[in-house]
Amino acid sequence: MGLFSIHTKSNWWGHANLQFPVLLKSQRRPFFMSEQKLEKFDHKNFLSHLSRRPGVYRMLNSAGAVIYVGKARNLKNRVGSYFRASGLASKTLAMVEKISEIEITVTSSETEALILEQSLIKAHRPNYNIQLRDDKSYPYILLTEQDEFPRLGFYRGSRNIKAKFFGPYPSANATRETLQVLQKVFRVRQCEDSYFKNRTRPCLQYQIGRCTAPCVNLISKEEYARDVCYSALFLQGKSNAISKELSKNMELAAKEERFERAAVIRDQMIDLRRIQEEQYVANQGGDADILAAQLKQGYACVHGIYVRAGRVIGSKSHFPKYRLATDVNDLLMAFISQAYLGDEKATNIPAELIIPAKLDGAAELQEALSYVAGRKVKLSSNVRGHRQKWLQLAITNAFESLQGYVTNKKNINKRFKELQDVLKLKSIPMRLECFDISHTSGDETVASCVVFDANGPVKSDYRRFNIKGITPGDDYAAMEQVLDRRFTRLSKGEAKIPDVMLIDGGKGQLTQARKIMEKFELPEIKLLGIAKGISRRAGQETLFLDAGEKYQEIALVSESPALHLLQQVRDEAHRFAITGHRQRRSKAKKQSHLEQIPGLGPKRRRELLRHFGGQQEIKKASESEITKVTGISKKLAENIYAYLHND
After folding, report:
1. How many CA atoms within 13 Å lie on the side-chain side of 254?
2. pLDDT for 349-375, tens place per residue?
3. Are residues 115 and 12 in the same domain?
4. Is the pLDDT of residue 575 over 90?
5. Distances (CA, A) of 268 to 47, 165, 264, 289, 409
6. How much is the pLDDT for 602?
7. Are 581 and 573 in contact (CB under 8 A)?
């Protein structure tokens, strides 16, 4: 067995100041082949030399890929438990059968092992570890304190800019809802600086009482600064302090007979009190995440309720994939470790995590959370009062969310089985692809390809295609082009073959699809067209099945699960195509016509605009006048003139 030392404090796993003095690695075993079977991993020899210290182990398959990463208080006991004669779950046995090699990293404590484990999971993403689907950064509310009239806004990204941040929030919706509350109560501007600096009169937000119009100086700097201060206090959970301050200001305004001002403050107090009443508790406690988990039929759900400054700001259900989960505590331990310790900047770790029951290894997990956060983090399970209400709500939501999730999975399986019967297939189709075309009067045509399997949408396989070089509005040519491009990639081994291909359209579009299938010699793919029918109403679609020499029309009742599946897939393809088309059209509108002229770079465009003053004047100019611009040759001037006049 190889043995070598590391004498550095490098932060290659994402956390500095941790030292792992010894790295043990199993021998590269000779993997000579018999007929088709690899020699089994010699676990007895490996375990005989294994340390009993804390550490992290990585299980690799025959291809050298990491399939599982785990941590242990005692490496020899923990790794040895995978090779005992009985008592292993079938999922664990399936994983053990794939082990070709095990790599070991010894650490000085179980806490360090826990932190390193999450760094390695994040780096390798093993199939048998818990897999969280949402890897996006958390959103914040941004306050631009350095501005003369600061603004509040939604922000997601690096926090290296000069601004004050509040959050993080569990979702974009929760962030925007908080911004709407602030806009209504304190009326601090939320518009971008480019919009703010170019106003000459108040915008609609002022007219509906959502802004005080600092852009045209309808509020003094002092009064605006006070509203900004109130907004910051509200985001920090200090609503009681705001209420006292507002009450004092209202009395003062009434004494000075500024009754309109007193009425405005009164309305602010009413709105603030209403917001406080919507919470189980207002301004009691700091930041906390309440987590509860459920397992059912191989599916997992973790529901989180997020409290910031004593206010519930939102909740979210996560449906992670975790093949080795045996109970909810095991699931929660894996989820907390990856969701919180995997964040190197520790932006999402609250002061307290509340869970239904005490976890095995809770002390080490709490220590690791505190280390990563750089402050004390509490892991609580025995709670009372309003925190118990939050916890019970999280448990209920986890149960209901998983129930709906499992039911939806069953419905999808039932729909695929029904589709098999309708199309008379030998087996249930494992992959269904749908293609759709979107354009506006032939401009900026975009085609979409969406993919469904027995688990629902496979969004990682979705694709969009920008259609070029066809007659505008020719849907048949567009369909032919997208299918040709799609199956050209497939012929190169870059994509999977679908069992059923759904075309949004009638016989014309289906004919183009048949032509492509003949070109690429793919007769095994079932071609199905879905047209809206004469009434163009949902449930009355006309289905066309490619039956060789002719198209077979299929009539399904509106209650048919197979029809519901085809409608769902068609609607998803339609949505995906329209979204892409709108993005492309919006981008085209923002582009200058000059940018599309071949040979005309940024420098020459700038010279043209500087010389003529704008695009309209350039269009009015003759070829000889364009030639007078610095850097514009006679040939380029001809091209510019021809392009601008569609010649």
Report:
1. 11
2. 888 999 999 888 888 888 888 888 888
3. yes
4. yes
5. 69, 24, 6, 29, 47
6. 84
7. no
Pure H helices in 132-255 = 172-185, 193-196, 204-207, 221-235, 239-255
Q: What is the pTM of this model?
A: 0.55
- Among 326, 348, 330, smallest CA distance to 339 is for 348
- Buried b / exposed e along 287-325 (16+ C-beta atoms within 10 A): bbbbbbbbbeeebbbbbbbbbbbbbbbbbbbbebebbbb
One domain for residues 443 and 572: yes
Q: Contact, 131 vs 335, CB < 8 A?
A: no
Q: Is the dihedral of CA 12, 16, 21, 26 positive or negative?
A: negative
Six-digit token string for 646: 């569609």
Spatial separation of the C-alpha atoms in residues 108 and 500, rounded to whole Å: 55
What pLDDT was estimated at residue 26?
40
Query: 21 or 597: whose pLDDT is higher?
Result: 597
| Domain match, 230 and 210 both | yes
Q: What is the CA radius of gyration of the chain?
A: 31
Query: To the nearest whole number, what is the mean pLDDT of the chain?
Result: 80
Indicate which CATH number applies to the domain containing 38. Answer: 3.40.1440.10
**Mean pLDDT within 277-292:** 62
pLDDT at 587 over 80: no
Cis upstream peptide for 429 (omega within 30°)? no
Same domain, 438 and 549: yes
Helix (H, G, I), strand (E, B) or coil at 476: helix
32 in the same domain as 119: yes
Confidence category of residue 79, pLDDT binned at 50, 70, 90? very high
Q: What's the farthest any 2 CA atoms get from each other in the chain?
A: 97
pLDDT at 546 > cutoff 70: yes
* Whole-angstrom distance, CA of residue 637 vs CA of residue 629: 9
Q: Which residues lie across from 317 on neighbouring strands?
A: 303
Number of structural domains found in the chain: 5
Read off the amino acid at residue 558.
S
Cβ atoms of 462 and 579 within 8 Å: the answer is no
- Give the range with max mean pLDDT: 345-354, 381-390, 575-584, 637-646: 575-584
Range of the domain at 379: 288-295+302-309+330-403
Q: What is the DSSP string of 321-385?
A: B-TT--SHHHHHHHHHHHHHHT-TT-TT--SEEE-SSPPTTHHHHHHHHHHHHTS--EEE-S--H
Please state, in angstroms and rounded to a whole number, the distance separating the CA atoms of residues 18 and 54: 14
Instruction: Specify the amino acid at residue 80.
Output: G
Confidence bin at 8 (pLDDT 50/70/90): very low
